[in-house]
């Protein structure tokens, strides 16, 4: 395959071009404190939610409830802190368990009933929307928890530059970034080298052949969905850290970007193949576009229109490149 | 007259055709022969507009033919049965058969006419199938019959058949060839791709042999060759037939796999079979006899309603293939490689290693190196033709796909192996090698249940032969490897049963 036919290369090129464009028009785009650090926080959140969607795309499934799984998990984190006074790690852990549990439940329903994942998770999304409202009104009589565990403030405002060993301080990278990076590395490891991850991909490639090769396909479906829920919970946590509160609105804007990042990065909707690196690039690209247009002071509705157009162009380019590559191969 | 001259077709890393020439006269049956991966299917696809040639030209009655797609070929009167199934699973048999010329009235589908047309095509082949059955519910062989009926439904001057009888038994193949002869006598030209040389010699008039994408014999009268000469041409050197390993079956050893009075939800009644270690039990029957379904019931994929399954003398309740593989060391090589045997979008390495990842893994991680080494061992051992072990399974020729589907079960290192039509679509040389391999496995003490519709294969390999008909075992014979006698006995068993039932049932 020629180098230019690799979707990841196209993304990198596009990314470089856009950064050059934005920083020429608005030099402030390269300002670390104003733009780059917040940009990294945003990328972290959308990378993790992209990974959450990617985990089930690997099966050829969808998770339409990523946003609400994130919200429910965030509620759980807020709740254990609010009522039991739990610290940061205990809260995070509880949230991750709740997220994984919700995902596993979706996976269980899908594998037991054979109902399409789109339908199951969409129904789950509806149910959770209602549940979240009830929970927040019941517990805090509002839409957000008033307090956060100690340390969340640091996650929100600090960068590694605030931590120095003698004279040497860290780079201006927000503290949330390593969470996302770790999630990406572990997910990559899972799908690339682990037996379970590969079996999930094989199940996505052909469920029937997977079953006849001795792969416990039902278990793999449940595990992939549990992973999706777990990552959604992590994304919810990171967004809460960025926003400064566990609130009912967490995850409202997750659904579309969750698909964009992996799909731009070359993950197939049909299942059987994923790309973590592509998802990283896809998430970065979407957030760069968002930030850039924002700096150029587009109004929000216009902003969304333009983002839609840019993404459409990016996807068409991708498709065109694919077709061209195919022709080149057919006629050497 | 259809002529293909010096056709060239290249895929990444492979030159599938490299100057192939085919001359097709009306009123003849033309055999197109060659080893697995020689380029036969690629040639068929060029002639039917599936691929476009990179070089050479195709002419029909003197005029050059530019085929932009399959529809162009259809308009030019070229019908085809491809090696791989092309039916739409959700549609009915009738809808599939008349798909390209759906009878309509004022924009509405004329269902009655559609059904009648489908019925007519099925009757040509004497296939007893309800035209309203969804294709998803058909067995592999039934699907193949529908595919052939579909090609017959168009009035074509040229008919290309790419291994049409690969999964059919003798009777069904005979009916197909009756139709083929009738078409030839009315002036049609038929191309027949097949690895079953007996059939080829019985029906074809002329022959083209492909080797490595080139024609090494061009439209020569078949009568001038012996089967041995044709095989030598395909292989490119003198081909010595293989002697099978001598085996002794431990008479007193307890059966490795025993079925006792098994009935299933699908309608199998009171099936009893036993295979001992080191033994090959052949399971022969017509299409629809329920052999594959019986195997699947043993593996827990179909429900067993009565009777017992014993593995090495212990009652076993197997729920899925994973359990069969890991707890009982039973493997099952499926007959349906495209849907059940292979991951077409995945590389050959993963297709072979999938059953043994557990063994290859270190701390849950599978090193690429070990996986690749394993795959390479089997690529070499079975002579699988790949441009690299990373090549996608779906890009291999049909016979090479079959080898991959078998390789993963050889790698799994089982005690009991159920092989379902293991040599479908495999060339003569490799088939002999496969037979040697299977006999070798038995000699090592494996218990083999060989499901096959290939009567010579069953008689060559099996120690005992069980005959199934209509979801029951109708007889079991000790095999003395005397083909004329054994085949007669077996066919008599099959037909005794169907006469009682009143008619040949394909359902
Ligand atoms: N779509 C494809 N992409 C890449 N390689 C291909 C593709 N189709 C066929 N090939 C390669 O071209 C060669 C010829 O394949 P082809 O299917 O024509 O063989 P064949 O003679 O029909 O063999 P068989 O008897 O096994 O069906 C093989 O090496 C195969 O791997
Ligand atoms: Mg072929």
TrEMBL record, chain A:
GO CC terms of this entry: plasma membrane
UniProt cross-references to Pfam families, sorted A to Z: BPD_transp_2
Topology versus the membrane: Multi-pass membrane protein
Keyword Cell inner membrane: yes
Chief location: membrane
InterPro entries cross-referenced by the UniProt entry: ABC_transp_permease (IPR001851)
Entry superkingdom: Bacteria
Transmembrane segments: 43-66, 87-111, 117-139, 175-193, 222-242, 254-283
UniProt GO molecular function: transmembrane transporter activity
Keywords of the record: Cell inner membrane, Cell membrane, Membrane, Transmembrane, Transmembrane helix, Transport
Keyword Transport: yes
Cellular localization per UniProt: Cell membrane
Entry function: Part of the ABC transporter complex LsrABCD involved in autoinducer 2 (AI-2) import. Probably responsible for the translocation of the substrate across the membrane.
Subunit structure: The complex is composed of two ATP-binding proteins (LsrA), two transmembrane proteins (LsrC and LsrD) and a solute-binding protein (LsrB).
PANTHER family in UniProt: ABC TRANSPORTER PERMEASE PROTEIN YPHD-RELATED-RELATED, AUTOINDUCER 2 IMPORT SYSTEM PERMEASE PROTEIN LSRC
Name assigned to this protein: Autoinducer 2 import system permease protein LsrC
Species for this entry: Actinoplanes italicus
From TrEMBL, chain B:
Pfam entry (one): ABC_tran
Organism for this UniProt entry: Actinoplanes italicus
Protein name per its UniProtKB record: Monosaccharide ABC transporter ATP-binding protein (CUT2 family)
Location of this chain's protein in the cell: Cell membrane
Start and end residues of each ABC transporter domain: 2-237, 244-495
Chaperone among keywords: no
Keywords assigned: ATP-binding, Cell membrane, Membrane, Nucleotide-binding, Repeat, Translocase, Transport
Topological relation to the membrane, as annotated: Peripheral membrane protein
GO molecular function: ATP binding; ATP hydrolysis activity
Record-linked PROSITE patterns: ABC_TRANSPORTER_1, ABC_TRANSPORTER_2
GO cellular component: plasma membrane
UniProt keyword annotation of Transport present: yes
């Amino acid at each position: 395959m020629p180098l230019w036919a690799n979707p990841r290369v196209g993304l990198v090129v596009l990314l470089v071009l856009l950064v050059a464009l934005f920083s020429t028009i608005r030099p402030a785009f390269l300002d670390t404190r104003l733009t780059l650090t917040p940009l990294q926080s945003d990328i972290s959140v959308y990378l993790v939610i992209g990974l959450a969607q990617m985990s089930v795309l690997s099966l050829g499934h969808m998770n339409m409830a990523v946003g609400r799984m994130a919200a429910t998990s965030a509620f759980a984190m807020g709740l254990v802190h609010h009522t039991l006074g739990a610290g940061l790690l205990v809260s995070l852990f509880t949230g991750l368990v709740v997220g994984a549990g919700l995902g596993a439940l979706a996976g269980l329903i899908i594998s037991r009933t054979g109902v399409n994942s789109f339908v199951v998770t969409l129904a789950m999304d509806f149910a959770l929307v209602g549940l979240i409202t009830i929970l927040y009104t019941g517990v805090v009589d509002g839409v957000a928890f008033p307090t956060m565990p100690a340390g969340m403030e640091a996650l929100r405002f600090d960068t590694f530059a605030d931590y120095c060993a003698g004279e040497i301080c860290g780079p201006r990278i927000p503290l949330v970034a390593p969470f996302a990076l770790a999630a990406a590395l572990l997910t990559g490891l899972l799908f690339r080298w682990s037996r379970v991850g590969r079996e999930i991909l094989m199940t996505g490639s052909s469920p029937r052949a997977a079953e006849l090769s001795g792969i416990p396909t039902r278990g793999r479906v449940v595990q992939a969905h549990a992973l999706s829920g777990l990552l959604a919970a992590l994304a919810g946590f990171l967004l809460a850290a960025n926003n400064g509160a566990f609130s009912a609105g967490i995850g409202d804007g997750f659904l579309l970007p969750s698909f964009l990042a992996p799909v731009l990065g070359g993950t197939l909707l049909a299942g059987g193949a994923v790309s973590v690196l592509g998802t990283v690039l896809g998430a970065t690209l979407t957030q760069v576009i968002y930030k850039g247009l924002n700096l150029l002071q587009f109004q929000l509705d216009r902003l969304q229109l333009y983002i839609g157009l840019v993404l459409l162009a990016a996807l068409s380019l991708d498709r065109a490149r694919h077709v061209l590559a195919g022709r080149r191969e057919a006629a050497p | 007259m259809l002529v293909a001259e010096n056709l060239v077709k290249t895929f990444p890393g492979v030159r599938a055709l490299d100057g192939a020439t085919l001359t097709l006269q009306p009123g003849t049956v033309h055999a197109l022969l060659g080893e697995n991966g020689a380029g036969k299917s690629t040639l068929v696809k060029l002639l039917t507009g599936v691929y476009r040639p990179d070089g050479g030209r195709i002419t029909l009655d003197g005029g050059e033919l530019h085929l932009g797609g399959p529809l162009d070929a259809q308009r030019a009167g070229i019908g085809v049965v491809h090696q791989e199934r092309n039916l739409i699973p959700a549609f009915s048999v009738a809808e599939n058969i008349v798909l390209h010329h759906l009878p309509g009235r004022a924009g509405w589908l004329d269902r009655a006419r559609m059904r009648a047309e489908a019925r007519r095509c099925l009757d040509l082949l004497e296939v007893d199938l309800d035209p309203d059955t969804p294709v998803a519910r058909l067995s592999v062989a039934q699907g193949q019959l529908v595919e052939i009926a579909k090609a017959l439904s168009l009035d074509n001057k040229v008919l290309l058949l790419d291994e049409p009888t690969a999964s059919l038994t003798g009777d069904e193949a005979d009916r197909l060839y009756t139709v083929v002869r009738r078409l030839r006598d009315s002036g049609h030209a038929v191309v027949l791709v097949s690895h079953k040389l007996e059939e080829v010699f019985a029906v074809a008039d002329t022959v083209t042999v492909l080797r490595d994408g080139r024609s090494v014999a061009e439209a020569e009268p078949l009568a001038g060759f012996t089967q041995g000469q044709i095989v030598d041409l395909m292989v490119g050197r003198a081909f010595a037939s293989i002697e099978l390993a001598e085996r002794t079956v431990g008479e007193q050893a307890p059966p490795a796999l025993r079925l006792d009075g098994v009935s299933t939800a699908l309608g199998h009644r009171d099936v009893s079979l036993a295979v001992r270690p080191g033994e090959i039990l052949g399971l022969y029957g017509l299409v629809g006899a329920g052999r594959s379904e019986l195997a699947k019931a043993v593996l827990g994929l179909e429900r067993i309603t009565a009777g017992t399954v014993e593995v090495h003398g212990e009652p076993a309740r197997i729920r899925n293939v994973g359990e069969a593989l890991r707890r009982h060391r039973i493997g099952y090589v499926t007959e349906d490689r495209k849907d059940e045997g292979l991951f077409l979008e995945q590389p050959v390495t993963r297709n072979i290693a999938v059953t043994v990842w557990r063994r290859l893994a270190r701390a849950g991680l599978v090193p690429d190196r070990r996986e690749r080494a394993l795959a390479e061992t089997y690529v070499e051992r079975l002579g699988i033709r790949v441009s690299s072990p990373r090549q996608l399974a779906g890009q291999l020729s049909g016979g090479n796909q079959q080898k991959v589907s078998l390789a993963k079960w050889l790698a799994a290192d089982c005690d009991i192996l159920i092989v379902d039509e293991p040599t479908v679509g495999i060339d003569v040389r490799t088939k002999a090698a496969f037979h040697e391999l299977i006999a070798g496995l038995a000699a090592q003490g494996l218990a083999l249940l060989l499901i096959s519709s290939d009567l010579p294969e069953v008689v060559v390999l099996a120690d005992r032969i069980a005959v199934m008909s209509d979801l029951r075992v109708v007889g079991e014979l000790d095999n003395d490897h005397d083909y004329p006698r054994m085949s007669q006995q077996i066919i008599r068993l099959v037909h005794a049963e169907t006469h009682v039932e009143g008619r040949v049932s394909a359902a």
